[in-house]
Amino acid sequence: MIPLKDDNPVRSTPIVTIALVVVNVIVFLYEFQLGLQNGGGLDRFLNQYSFDFTAFTQSFSRGGLTLAAVVPLFTHMFLHANWLHVGGNMLYLWIFGNNVEDRLGSVRFIVFYLACGLAAAFGQGIVAPEPMIGASGAIAGVLAAYLVMFPGARVSTLIFLGLFITILQLPALLVIGFWIVTQLVSGLAELRMAGHPAGGVAYYAHIFGFVAGIPLLFVLRAGIRRTY
């Protein structure tokens, strides 16, 4: 299943969602430009700004966290491995993020997004402490929030059934529910491989980001006046 768009209108311009998409794309274009050069610039860039759970915990155990250890907690959310990685993440963020931002408000939304990304990073790090990059953990939290708030929203979804390809209007409950089930199944399969990410996919970041999104949503949504 690949979601293409939803039928859920917003009341205001999703400034933060747009900004996140733009920044992620700009950073990836910079990565792409580094990759075209010789000299290992891309590797150095990724090593500096990806989140390394082992390095983070070692820094903490030595008596305090350095700026170099803390910065990657946030910068890793804006790094991607390839065009498919960044394209898929930004598609999901745009489809589902604008409505979550519309309901929470821009300030609460960016706090929510970053908090889900942090939860995802630590969750993945505990299970499989290899260096990680990507916005998908934070976006998983956005999917959870959308599922809670708009379970019946219709999502235009590209469906592949062997050689048969079609677009169906499916409820968000089914689209997002199917997605998280695939992450859980893949994550359990990964445990059989001693926690090493299968194909470079951080399934536990997705799972922890999704799970964190539900309580964070209720905390941040408390006190918001309903005008729908």
Main traits of this protein?
228 residues; mainly alpha; Rhomboid-like fold; three-stranded antiparallel β-sheet; 64% helix
Compact description:
The chain has a single domain (2-221), classed as Rhomboid-like fold. The protein contains ten helices and three strands, in the order βααααααααββαα.
Model description:
The protein is mainly alpha-helical and 228 residues long. The chain has one domain: Up-down Bundle (Rhomboid-like fold), CATH 1.20.1540. The protein contains 10 helices and 3 strands, in the order βααααααααββαα. The chain has a 3-stranded antiparallel beta sheet. Helix 6 packs across helix 7 and helix 7 runs antiparallel to helix 10.
Query: What share of residues are in beta strands?
Result: 5-15%
**Bulk shape:** globular
CATH superfamily: Rhomboid-like
Number of strands: 3
Helix percentage range: 55-70%
Q: Could you name the CATH topology?
A: Rhomboid-like fold
Low-confidence stretches: none
Assign the structural class, choosing from mainly alpha, mainly beta, alpha/beta, alpha+beta, or little secondary structure: mainly alpha
Count of individual domains? 1
Order of helices and strands: EHHHHHHHHEEHH
Any idea what the CATH architecture is? Up-down Bundle
Fold blueprint:
Elements: E1 2-6, H1 15-36, H2 41-49, H3 53-61, H4 67-70, H5 72-75, H6 83-104, H7 106-127, H8 136-149, E2 154-161, E3 164-171, H9 172-191, H10 203-221
Antiparallel strand pairs: 1-2, 2-3
